[in-house]
Amino acid sequence: MSVFKIGNFKKAKVEDINLTSKNITAQKTDEARNLNQSILDASVNRSKVVEGRDTQLSFSGNMSLTELENVNAEVSNEEIVTPTKEEVETEKNNAVKAKRAFNQEPSGTKRERELQKAYLDAENTYVQKVLDCKESTESDWYNAANELKIIIDITHHPAVQDKVAVSKELLAKVQEKLDAVNEEKWQELLGSSKDELDVDMTKQIAEASKKQVGYNKKSSALCAMFVREALEKTGVVEKNETRVISAYMLTKKYEETGSFMKLDIQNYEDLKDLPPGCIIVWEKGPGFGSAFAQHGHVAVTQGDGKATSDYNQMIKDYGTKFSVFVPKKVTTEERIQNAQKSREEFLSIPNRKAADNIVRKQYLFDYVKAAKAILDDKNVSKDEIQNLIKLMEEVKTSNIVPQEQSVAIEIQKLIPKLKALLK
Question: pTM of whole model > 0.90?
Answer without folding.
Answer: no
